[in-house]
Every structure is written in C-alpha cells, then in structure tokens.
C-alpha cells in the first residue's frame, strides 16, 4: 500500500486478502473423515452435512469422496450392502436409494409395531396407595405419559428414588 495511486477497489481487495482466514485443508479433511451418521439422522441429512464439510477440503472429486464416506460411516448395514452391489451408482443414485430404503423401513416399522401383540398402546392400570381402610382404586393413565411429578423425569421412578427429593 506504499503506492499513492491505489484506487479504493485496490485498497479493499488488498485488505480482504490480508484479513482472509487461512484455510487448513489437512484439518478440514481430517474432520471430514471423522464424520459419521448420527443416531436418528437420515442418510439424506448425513449427506447434506458431508457436502457442506467437503467444500473446505479441496477434494479434486468431492462427489467420490462423499460417496466413499457415506459407505464407510453410514449406520445402515443394508444400505452399505446396496452400495456394494452397485459400484457404478452416482451420488444421486445413492441419495435416491437412501430415501427409498428409509421410507420403506419406516413404513415396515409401523406395520410391525401394529402387528406386535406384546406392544400395548392403550392405557395401563395404575394402583394408587391409600392410607387407612380406604379401598385402592385403579387409575387409568396412558403408558407413554408416566413421568415423575417432582422432577418430570421419564421413565417414572418411585418418589424415594427421585433426584429432586433432596430439594
């Protein structure tokens, strides 16, 4: 900037270059390789995270790197087998198959849950303790709403075991 003829645009460009953060591609690649599918995360959400992280890595072929990372770090074993069966799939093919597989697994899970005789989605009878000669009355309470009245913790635990009993 020692030159006296610099225009405003030249000065701004030089300042932008000077203050531009230095990219550490080695760190970015390391962090990318550490990414794995989180519990409850769909493959599509995982792919979106991979795409956003791959931008900082400077990969020559980011699509191939994302596809390899999906194969290595997805939690769905059936999906891994499908990728192995189709080595020529593009990333779009992988995304499409992931959507299809997750949709069918969700639908199958709903059917299996409905057909399971050991899962009771109705209410359970809760026995209430009474003092003296009173009669115990069952109280209808939905199974999924049982939580502690003191701390709100789920699943329900006896008052003697409540972490909030000390307060």
Number of strands: 2
Helix content: 40-55%
Order of strands across the main sheet: 1-2
For the biggest sheet, the summary is: 2 strands, antiparallel
Radius of gyration: 28 Å
Distance between the termini: 66 Å
Q: Total helix count?
A: 6
Low-confidence stretches: none
Shape: flat
Order of secondary-structure elements: HHHHHHEE
**Helix/strand/pairing category:** mainly alpha
Mean pLDDT: 79
Instruction: Give the strand content.
Output: 5-15%
How is this structure best described in words?
This protein is 48% helix and 6% strand. It is mainly alpha-helical and 167 residues long. It has a domain at 8-115. Helix 3 (43-54) crosses helix 4. The model has no long low-confidence stretch (mean pLDDT 79).
Indicate the topology:
Layout: H1 8-19, H2 25-34, H3 43-54, H4 62-73, H5 77-85, H6 91-115, E1 123-127, E2 138-142
Antiparallel strand pairs: 1-2
Brief account:
By secondary structure, the chain is mostly helical. Helices cover 48% and strands 6% of the residues.
């Amino acid at each position: 900037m020692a030159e006296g003829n610099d225009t405003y645009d030249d000065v701004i460009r030089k300042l932008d270059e000077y203050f531009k953060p230095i990219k550490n591609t080695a760190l970015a690649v390391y962090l990318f390789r550490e990414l794995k599918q989180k519990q409850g995360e769909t493959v599509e959400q995982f792919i979106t995270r991979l795409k956003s992280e791959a931008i900082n890595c400077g990969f020559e072929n980011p699509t191939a790197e994302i596809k390899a990372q999906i194969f290595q770090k997805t939690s769905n074993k059936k999906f891994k087998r499908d990728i192995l069966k189709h080595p020529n799939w593009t990333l779009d093919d992988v995304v499409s198959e992931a959507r299809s597989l997750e949709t069918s697994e969700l639908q199958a899970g709903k059917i299996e849950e409905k057909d399971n005789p050991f899962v009771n989605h109705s209410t359970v009878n809760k026995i209430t303790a009474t003092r003296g000669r009173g009669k115990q009355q069952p109280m209808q309470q939905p199974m999924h709403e049982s939580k502690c009245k003191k701390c709100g913790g789920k699943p329900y635990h006896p008052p003697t075991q409540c972490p909030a009993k000390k307060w």
